[in-house]
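Submission sheet (multi-component)
Chains listed below:
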Amino acid sequence: MRPVHELLLMLVVLTDFWVLGTGRLSSTIRAAACQGALLAMLPLALYRDASPHMLALAAGTLLVKAFWLPRLLTRAIREATDRREVEPLLGFNMSLVLGAVAVAVAFSISPGLPIPGLRSDLLVPVALSTVMIGLIVLTTRRKAVTQVVGYLVLENGIYVFGLSQAERVPFLVDVGVLLDVFAGVFVMGIVVFHMNRAFDSLDTSNFAELEE
Amino acid sequence: MILAAALLALPVVAGLGAYWLPSARVRMGLLLGTAALHLAGCLAAWRLPCGPASGDWLGLDALGLIVLTVASAVFLAVAVGSRAFLAAHAQRGERVFAGCLFGFLGAATLVAESQHLALMWIGMEATTLAMAPLVFHSRTRRSLEAVWKYLLLSSVGIGLALFGTFFLAAAQGAGRPLILGDLVLHAASLQPGLLRAAFVFLLVGYGTKMGLAPLHAWKPDTYGEAPAPVAALMAGALTSCAFLGLARVTQVMVAAHQFAFVRPPLLALGLASLVVSAGFMVWQTDLRRLFAYSSVEHMGLLAIALGIGGAGMFGAALHIVGNGLVKAAMFLAVGNVILLSKTSESGGTRGLLRRAPWTSVLLVLGLFAVTGSPPFALFVSEFAILGAAFHAGLAWLALVIVVLFTIVFVAMARVLLRVVYTAPEPGASVLAERPALVAGPALLVGAVLLLGLHVPAPLRAVLADAARALGGNAP
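Outcome: structure written.
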């Protein structure tokens, strides 16, 4: 029987691939919400400690990453007519393969990193693969909403890595992560909303006026 | 310490107050008053001892003091320029504009004063966010595209910087977590592998915010579409804050005897920035984009200076001052050109000397200042950096830099002189150059000129302190 946090970490990787493999915007957002919920449970499972700090961290993560941000993104696509990802720069199959390569790389380099205070061997490889998959989504998709989700996945990977240091570095860091996601996507959400109005589309390939 | 806290609280309190003020006039007055008071506080900090005590999260060391003073001086000039800008645009969106300016000043102060590297990161993130609504001020499609590129690239950069900060925390064996003083003091106990990983992520992260090539893609678009005072603030203050982030991690690396590891990437990114900016400036006809590439160029030079070490560190500290002030002045002057002809395209403006003589003089003086000609401060700093390169056995690098500088000078002179020294079209309008439009940039250019002629002893001492903290020395 493996501990709960290892199961959670494996599910995080699974949601990474969900984001990589899906073409419907609503499904992408749902994947991000699920990943947020998993991340909210992770600190509790990892430290088995119900201190006010840990509970607040879990509650805050759940609120922001699993409910608030997905709702913001859902609202942004509500008025859009075209809710599918259009011809990503890299096909879905290719990006799944690339994601698998990222996971393999992450798992092969992680044992070489002498990171102190680790509660689980899976923590660092999962963090690294999530960061890399976030970057893949961010750079190969064209829809603004999908790019925001890619950014969220990237941030989630950093959050997992930050959890490995939560005991050594006090709580400011978790607040920083939440604040970052909170405000960053809040502003991005506004931009996405305006983009809908200005171009009748969330496709960033409309952005060609400023090319050199 | 009290002064440091007061400087941080001032813009936050004033900003909250300003948001609830009903009158736009009073709000702009409060903005100017806050900016002036903030600068006065910064100058007082040069006299009073306010260095960080051991373990403090806030405090002004030499490098922080330099960056904060530059940011504060630039902010005052930008506040004056913003009033003219908003008056010309019927005060549209003025409440948000002022609010974001206050927010930026608070965030920049936090970056400069932070002795805790995660706290500094929070400040850096806040500067990014405060700028976004300002870039999007004109609400056009082009500005939407610009703000999207800016947010996306900066957010990824800032995310990777956080990743690097966590690696730094993981590398730490002794001392309070992420306190700069403790990191330097216990540098020997830092785990080298994790420390190197931390440096790479922080270099990419803060390098994106500085606009080092090849991570500079957002810069020309953002500076080209943002209102001129906003571009002035970004080129003068925001990039200086980002440089401070890179300088902090370099300081830790130097203390941990990892200088041999940091030199190649710093030189490579710096040199790439110089080459890319020189290449793009040759074809550039838009004044704002021209100066945006100039900003890429100078950030590249700063990265190179950090990579050279020795007297290069002194040069970098002085260069931050000169570059911040003159770049802000140039964008404010270009703002005057835009007021006159509604565009910063050089083809859209002829005979500027007749139509806006003060602005023309400022642009021509700025051309010489920004390209590092004597007697301006950037000449002194660039001379120190080039000298350090020879001293460090990097003569080839110095020669390459000189060649690239020459290309940049010709490219900038070609565009600027064509705007200034041509015959105006018959019946072309003339800009009423009220003192508010020219005072800010004139004072900034004047300061750069004076600093080039003579670096006052207190400034020289602080610059030398900053250089020593980075493992360098005064020339």
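Remark: Chain A has one domain: 4-206.
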